[in-house]
Amino acid sequence: MKKTKQWDRWIYPLTKEADSAFCSLVAAELRSHGVYSDYMSELVHAGEFRKIVELKVPKDLDLTDYRGSTLIQALYSKNSDLDLGFNPLKAAVEAAIAAELQCGRVNEYFGQTCPYGGVAMAISLARRKIRYVLGKVPTLDSLRFHFGPGASTSIKRADACFENKLDAPIVCSEEMLPVIDEVLKEFPLWVRQKSGRQLFSELPHWGTEKSSFNVVVDTAKLIFVEKNAKTHRPICVEPLLNGFMQLGIGKYLKERLRVRAKQDLGDQTRNQTLAWSASMTGNLATIDLSSASDTLAFSVVFDLLPEEWVDLLASFRTGHMNYGGREYELEKFSSMGNGYTFELESLIFWALSSACTQLSGEDQDLVSVYGDDIIVPVKAVDLLMATLTWCGFNLNREKSFWTGKFRESCGADWLDGDTVRPIFKKTRLSPQWLAVFHNWAWWRGYSGLCAIAKSFIPRDLQLFGPPGYGDGHLLGPWDTTHLPRHERRRGYEGCRFDTFRETPRVVETNPEVAALTGIYDLYANPTDWWECGGSRTPGITPGTTCVERHSIYTFAKRVARW
């Protein structure tokens, strides 16, 4: 393993001039793919980048032309490094306000006004399906709570490792205060550490020690992260203890959906496969919603879920958020950033979709849901759209398809059975992204695009190797490194190749919580803990410190040239 500063150039961005030249060369290479690709290429050379982003590529193009056109558009549509004259923050703030206003309107009428017959029947049937999936409310000691990799209101993302979260002050929302005693009884060692007592002396009873440290009350914090060139994505950063508890509930909901509804939220393959089939047969629709998490109104959850489940979920939600120094009461039940939002919205969308499919006389086994990516039989679309609209959700008509030969779901785009998903350029070029682009093009036989990508990567960073080992090297013909004599004598018959690997960022943690972090790791990840021998590198946070040139032993055969 070679660990020197020179390899850090693998992740460093190139110049803006190189970035612009690369996009121009790719567009020129693709102009021969068809009439529309040629038109898009002309827009690139004319500098009409905003027009490229705003264009809607027709879905009735032939396969080659569609692939070329969408790839050119993908170079700009999510590129945060390019100023296209949009104001993404303003657009995101306006969308967040509109979503809250819509949730407010839904909260006023939902459950108070009766919708027309078909929708009313679908909602009633969905309630029964949700009750069946959820079952009885679990006790706290039966749930497996854990920290996520992201930030909390008291821990920045750059410091977001579970060691620092265990060491940070315990922060919760006002909604959790009525159950805080019950919650902290589940974690006596954490309570003892926060009380400044010895960890393994006589274990405390929470009722006798609850005044020995303070629980901080806080609201969620609204932030915006980059999504595409037009808008940002709103996220509510949760208080530390709320996020911890929410993830445990979300994990339980995910398992209930897998067992009772046959919806595996840990695998997108089923949605992608059904979308592929639907692009050829046309019997299924792929539905996508706009701002689904932000339009999940409180009254919808209150009406659809059993009362005892609403009480559980409401106890760990954050009902207020802070933005720009002002506090706002939320009309939505939970936002993106809440640890159980994804599972909760998946449950509700599955129940509504399954109910509409059943009422339409179609096969419920064809329903598949992953968040707001919904697949239903085409005959159920009209009733489902009416039901979702009544519940306050907005159909994303640009990404929903039930006619023609195009389908899209869970990051897979299909045109009459052929994959047409482009690769998106989200930031300025770096050798690392160029390698990803090169390998994407290599698998699709675009030798011209491979040559362009390779020409922008410095010579000493051009490592070649076989597929199946990530994108730390370029796919293609590679020179095998002969094994040293002592390895050959020991029976090794393979070979080695070099690849780049990022070293995760590690921050310094408080050694006083070392024993507590070991106990937490065993509690939250019992299977992983035993598999890795109980040994982990402490303080791993999002980000990279350096790049290593790593040697890998393999039996893979040499990749043939084109």
Q: Could you please describe the fold and organization of this structure?
A:
The chain has 3 domains: 5-83 and 422-460, no CATH class; 124-141 and 143-173 and 218-418, RNA-directed RNA polymerase lambda-3; 465-554, no CATH class. It is of the alpha+beta class. The protein has a 4-stranded mixed β-sheet with strand order 4-3-6-7, with helices on one face. Strands 8-9-5-10 form a 4-stranded antiparallel β-sheet. It starts with 15 loop residues before the first helix and ends in an 8-residue tail after the last strand. β6 and β7 (326-329) form a beta hairpin. α1 runs antiparallel to α2 (35-45), α1 runs antiparallel to α18 and α17 (431-443) runs antiparallel to α18 (447-455). The protein has helices spanning 16-30, 35-45, 49-54, 63-74, 88-109, 117-134, 162-167, 180-184, 188-194, 206-209, 240-260, 269-281, 298-304, 307-315, 341-359, 381-390, 431-443, 447-455, 485-489, 514-524, 526-531, and strands at 171-172, 216-217, 220-226, 232-237, 284-290, 320-323, 326-329, 368-370, 373-377, 394-395, 406-409, 412-415, 418-419, 464-465, 474-475, 495-506, 540-554. The longest helix has 22 residues, at 88-109. The protein has 21 helices and 17 strands.
